[in-house]
Amino acid sequence: MSQNFIACDRDQELFLPPSLREWLPAGHFAWFVVDAVAELDLSAFYGVYRDDGHGRPAHDPGMMVALLLYAYARGERSSRKIERACVEDVAVRVVAGNKAPDHTTLARFRQRHEAALADLFGEVLSLCAEAGLVELGVVAIDGTKLHANASRDANTDYEQIASEILEQADAVDREEDERYGPGSSVDVLPEGFRSSKGRRAWLREARQRLEQRRAEEARPIPRSRPDRLHECARRLEEELAVECRAAERQDEMWAARSAAGEQPSSRPPKPYSPPDTPAGVINTSDPDSRRLKAPQGYLQGYNAQAAVNDRQIVIAAEVNASTADFGNLGPMVDATLGELTNAGVSETPEVVVADAGYWHTEQMHEIVNRGSRCSSRRTRADARHHDQGGMAAPTRSCAARFRPTAAASSIENARA
Q: How many CA atoms lie within 13 A of 44 on its CB side?
């Protein structure tokens, strides 16, 4: 008697066209994402495409949004891996409607609709509120360190940046000498800018455009390394200028008190002379990132903050470059209330739970005055600062001594 196996014939032709509805069970998470995106307002995505039918057809924005949301929800951020999953992963193929956009299309779609994708957070929160998932009995706040797309070795001080800028300028001069000959003058200005009148008019319009752009949006990080070096040098110089103004303001304050005949309650501080060149380091790959201490050591990245309820619904999420969680409690509660208001939820959290690293007396008092209870635990370093009559300072000792508690146990303790 022969062995009995289920036949596996990869050359078997299908008698009927396959249906995507049969590829996944009805309760699969992919169908939930597809149905949720269908309920979202995607007019901000469709509005940027021309409506006359001309040009090469683009992938449907609804499909692209569902594909990115499903991939991100599954922890996949790489556009190349998402492209591969559109061929290999059955669930991703269902979400993409059996289409396979390449990684360049995925990356450009994300870059083009960055603001609209960020606004989807509020839309999803509104759907959760209508479904009764946004319960505000307990809201837990915590943070984690995220790696930036930059290396710690790219942290550079001002002198190294200035030296590299000079080396690049010298290389440009040598290249122009080889191209045009030594001693020759090269007029690189366009024809319309070579007169004094034309230059003044162009510069006046350029300054107006620059001021308007700076007022409307934040300065982006340049893509080319020479531009990033100049941007890093500018930021270090701005920090030095702020430091100099602060020192001058302190001297003026003590001089004014002395001129008024006031007797200072403490000894005036020692005169501070700011350095001639900016101190500190900055990352030339990602100037916004910082060197942060994480449980596994130091990393170059950001401090991501999230507020969730006991149903694991993310109510608010923010990113900053602060080393410790100290000082983030109040801003995260403000962000939570703002997102709830945008979602049409008028309730306020009954209890706000955070670990010891968030202990901030002033912010906790403000939260209590709003009608919410605040549950946290002080470390010895925090208590020492409070016993001395001040607020806990974001020192290295405070950040190193706290031990976060599990979210589940924190919620249970708050309820008790």
A: 14
| SS3 category, 156 | strand
Whole-number Å distance between alpha carbons of 416 and 412: 6
Average pLDDT value for residue range 86-102: 93
Tally of CB atoms within 10 A around 126: 19
Distance of alpha carbon 125 from alpha carbon 393, whole angstroms: 34
Those residues with Cβ within 8 angstroms of residue 252's Cβ, 6 or more apart along the chain or in another chain: none
The answer to whether 328 touches 305, Cβ cutoff 8 Å, is yes
Cβ-based burial of 192 (10 A; exposed 0-12, middle 13-18, buried ≥19): exposed
CB neighbour list of residue 384: distance below 8 Å, 6 or more residues apart: none
Terminal CA-to-CA distance of the chain, rounded, Å? 67
Nearest to 392 by CA among 369, 411, 364: 364
pLDDT tens per residue across span 141-193: 998 888 887 777 777 776 777 777 777 777 777 776 777 666 655 444 444 44
pLDDT in tens, 58-83: 899 999 999 999 999 888 889 999 99
CA nearest 324: which of 355, 370, 287? 355
Token pair, residue 335, equals 């962000």
3-class secondary structure, 281? strand
Left, alpha or beta for 165 (phi > 0: left; psi -120 to 50: alpha)?
alpha
Region 386-403: mean pLDDT is 36
In this structure, are strands 373-375 and 351-353 parallel, antiparallel, or unpaired? Answer: parallel
Strands (E), 207-333: 281-283, 290-294, 297-309, 314-320
Cα–Cα distances (Å) from 397 to 53, 325, 326, 392, 402, in that order, read 62, 13, 12, 11, 9
- Does residue 352 sit in helix, strand or coil? strand
Paired tokens of 41: 């307002």
| Best CA proximity match to 126, nearest among 344, 281, 333 | 344
Global model pTM greater than 0.85? no
167 Cβ neighbours under 8 A, 6+ residues apart: none
